[in-house]
Amino acid sequence: MIFTQITPEWLAAIEAKAQSELGITLSGNEGTASKDGITIGWVYDPDDQTLTVGDTGHPWYVPESKIEKELTALVESAQPNGETA
User: Fold this and answer.
1) Cβ-proximal residues to 63 (8 Å cutoff; 6+ apart), any chain
2) Which of 1, 26, 81, 82 is the most buried (most CB within 10 A)?
3) Are 15 and 65 in contact (CB under 8 A)?
4) What is the pLDDT of residues 32-47, one digit of tens each?
C-alpha cells in the first residue's frame, strides 16, 4: 500500500501510534518490524512524501486484508488535521 503526502511530522505521529497502540517500533525511512507472527515492511521517501507499507509475512489464519485494514486505520488515525493520504 502506498500512502501519499506523508510529511515528516505525520510519519513521526504514525511511528508514535504504532509504538503506543501496537507495541511495534517503526523507525527510520525503511525497515521491517514483527509482532505476533506478523511482519510488516515500510519505505518512506521524504522527497516524494510517500510511505509504502505492507505485510511481508503472517500466519495463515490472519487474512492479509485484515492487516491492510489495520495499517490503513493506523496511518489515517495519525493524520494531522487538514492532510490527506
Assistant:
1) none
2) 26
3) no
4) 999 889 999 999 999 9
Q: Give dist(CA 52, CA 59) in Å, integer.
A: 21
- Evaluate whether residue 67 is within a structural domain: yes
C-alpha span between 71 and 3 (Å, rounded)? 11
Q: Give the separation between CA 33 and CA 42, rounded to whole angstroms.
A: 9
Cell of 30: 525503511
- Whether this prediction's pTM lies above 0.85 is answered by no
In a domain, 84, yes or no: no
Domains in the chain, number:
1
Say if residues 41 and 29 touch (Cβ distance below 8 Å).
no
Specify the pLDDT at position 32.
Answer: 93
CATH number, position 68: 3.30.310
Between CA 48 and CA 33 the distance in angstroms is 23
